[in-house]
């Protein structure tokens, strides 16, 4: 095994920005990998414990074109594992096509992604090149994301945003005041995507007196439903006072909520999205808001982040957050630890602890 550093591509976030290079002796038995370490003490300790297993490096590239060239240069030859975050895309571009091919040729066999959503990674292409991919499983982030969804749900349902804007403008509740909002008690919440985040949200919404329905590709075992009722997609749209999107973005879910689906919702329904922006056709949502087919919405994610449709920004009935679903010290630390554990497992056992759903049982 070469003792030369080689791997990958994390992109530091404002909170977690420390990257270091560690040395790896020839008798460790594992090639180098690239990883980014969090500032939190627990994550730093977990990171430091990898020093006996591998040589950790970061790429020199700062954009996708240079990264692909760096891949082709042989700089990453011998790399076994990669750590990446949502922000890594600014360095690598999507992990697809030529990038996957180049990484596979360099020896990469594992990509540990820090985050629940992994739509920036072409899983079928990775699978074809025998590259294993993991994500941060919901236990590490379900509560924080569900909290964010509940905040957006309440803000949109109670019509808080117009009053917030009036207050900050020095006009108290406004003149005239914002229209009255609605209580969550007795309302029906329809959850699209009843994974860990969806189930966490369902429990919190039920505590507020909401009736919870959900739709998945497959019904959950009754023990996992927590009292929520399984319904088909069309029924969920028609019955729900609030529709919450908690499903991954892939080819089957992209644009899942468009003009036709919004028209099938209750007049004056509320839409909440903490999943991925691409699940919703933003132009159609703006139109539905303008006609009051949709009374309000709460959004944490957008089709073309960090750009937001100007019709959403201009509408005071829309509560907007800049992708902050997991933006807490505790959750970010837990996600770092989860991802580092996947890296350790890959190096020590040749398996990831939380492979993405599409690859479960394949390797």
Q: How would you describe what is shown here?
A:
By secondary structure, the protein is of the alpha/beta class. Helices cover 34% and strands 12% of the residues. It has 14 helices and eleven strands. The protein has a seven-stranded parallel sheet with strand order 7-6-5-8-9-10-11, sandwiched between helices. Strands 1-2-3-4 form a four-stranded parallel sheet. Helix 1 (41-48) runs parallel beside helix 14 (329-349) and helix 6 crosses helix 8 (196-207). The radius of gyration is 22 Å and the shape is globular. Mean pLDDT is 88; it is low at 1-37.
How are the secondary structure elements laid out?
Layout (H helix, E strand, L loop, with lengths): L32 E2 L6 H8 L15 H9 L8 E5 L3 H4 L4 H10 L3 E5 L8 H6 L3 E3 L7 H16 L2 H9 L19 E5 L3 H12 L3 E5 L6 H4 L3 E2 L2 H7 L2 E4 L13 H6 L4 E5 L8 H9 L3 E6 L10 H4 L4 E3 L8 H21 L14
Parallel strand pairs: 1-2, 2-3, 3-4, 5-6, 5-8, 6-7, 8-9, 9-10, 10-11
Helix pairs in contact: 1-14, 6-8
List keywords for this structure.
single chain; 363 residues; alpha/beta; seven-stranded parallel beta sheet; four-stranded parallel beta sheet; 11 strands; 12% strand
Low-pLDDT stretches are 1-37
Percent strand equals 5-15%
Q: Tally of extended strands?
A: 11
The largest beta-sheet arranges its strands as 7-6-5-8-9-10-11
- Percent of residues in helices comes to 25-40%
Give the oligomer, counting copies of the same chain as homo and different chains as hetero: single chain
The overall pLDDT average reads 88
**Tally of alpha and pi helices:** 14
Radius of gyration from CA coordinates: 22 Å
Q: Topology as H/E string?
A: EHHEHHEHEHHEHEHEHEHEHEHEH
For the sheet with most strands, the description reads: 7 strands, parallel
Structural class: alpha/beta
- Write down the overall geometry: globular
Distance between the termini: 24 Å
